[in-house]
């Protein structure tokens, strides 16, 4: 029995016969996470990322990113924003697709663009995080960190697949098969994260994207 990483309630565990992996499920907030004994070490994790063909020449990937941008980024764009693409991967395609005049777009990735100064010396009006949060080992810590990087009123636009709120469906869900995916959320999970932080949910389709706004802590 493990304690939920989101809400600290006791979880139940289940074994995935196909992946040969143990997952932990929290009935209180809906969070599902992979047992740490089955998490890849950093070197092997990076090897998996290097297998992805996430480039500007990959039409499918560009269309995938553009759908996210149209839903969760474009409605909030304006000139003179300071934007961070957090977890941009080896090819910062999202930055190229945005390419907004009079706007500063920064990138960060712990494996490919580990520019610590980008995180230490800037505050942002908008942070995008595409296919990143499912890799978080400690989601609360990571979301709190992202919140700390936002100006008040700033936005955090997240793209991840929401898991089916049914363990039978989860065991057949394609998204869990990626060896680097270790944390899985649904709308209840994100609502719990929101209720325990200064990140207010302003938009979501409850399927694959969610947008938070940083509100005053007072």
Overall geometry: globular
Instruction: Please report the first level of CATH classification, the CATH class.
Output: Alpha Beta
Helix content: 25-40%
Order of helices and strands, N to C?
Answer: EEEHHEHEHEHEHEHEE
Strand count, sense and barrel status of the largest sheet are:
6 strands, mixed
Domain tally: 1
Number of strands: 10
The CATH homologous superfamily is termed: Vaccinia Virus protein VP39
**Helices and strands: which structural class?**
alpha/beta
Could you walk me through the main structural features you see in this protein, from its secondary elements to its overall organization?
It is a single chain. The protein has 218 residues and is an alpha/beta fold. It has helices at residues 42-50, 59-72, 93-98, 116-120, 139-148, 167-170, 187-195; strands at 12-16, 21-25, 32-34, 82-86, 104-108, 124-130, 150-159, 183-184, 199-204, 209-214. It has a single domain, classed as Rossmann fold (3-Layer(aba) Sandwich), CATH 3.40.50.150. Helix content is 26%, strand content 25%. The longest helix has 14 residues, at 59-72. The mean pLDDT is 94.
List keywords for this structure.
single chain, 218 residues, Rossmann fold, six-stranded mixed sheet, four-stranded antiparallel sheet, 10 strands, globular
Detail the topology: elements first, then pairings.
Elements (H helix, E strand, L loop, with lengths): L11 E5 L4 E5 L6 E3 L7 H9 L8 H14 L9 E5 L6 H6 L5 E5 L7 H5 L3 E7 L8 H10 L1 E10 L7 H4 L12 E2 L2 H9 L3 E6 L4 E6 L4
Parallel strand pairs: 4-5, 4-6, 6-7
Antiparallel strand pairs: 1-2, 2-3, 3-8, 7-10, 9-10
């Amino acid at each position: 029995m493990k304690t939920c990483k989101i809400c600290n309630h006791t979880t139940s565990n289940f074994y995935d016969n196909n992946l040969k992996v143990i997952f932990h499920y929290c009935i209180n907030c809906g969070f599902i996470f992979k047992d740490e004994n089955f998490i890849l070490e950093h070197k092997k994790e990076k090897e998996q990322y290097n297998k992805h063909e996430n480039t500007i020449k990959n039409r499918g990937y560009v269309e995938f990113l553009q759908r996210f941008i149209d839903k969760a980024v474009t409605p909030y764009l304006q000139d003179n924003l300071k934007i961070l693409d957090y977890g941009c991967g080896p090819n910062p395609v999202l930055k190229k697709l945005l390419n907004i005049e009079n706007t500063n777009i920064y990138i960060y990735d712990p494996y490919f663009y580990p520019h610590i100064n980008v995180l230490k010396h800037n505050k942002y009006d908008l942070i995008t995080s595409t296919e990143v949060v499912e890799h978080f080992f400690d989601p609360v810590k990571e979301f709190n960190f992202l919140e700390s990087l936002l100006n008040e009123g700033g936005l955090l636009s997240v793209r991840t697949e929401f898991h089916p709120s049914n363990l039978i469906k989860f065991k057949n869900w394609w998204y869990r098969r990626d060896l680097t995916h270790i944390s899985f959320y649904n709308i209840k999970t994100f609502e719990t994260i929101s209720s325990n932080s200064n990140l207010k949910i302003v938009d979501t389709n409850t399927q694959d994207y969610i947008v938070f706004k940083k509100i005053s802590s007072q």
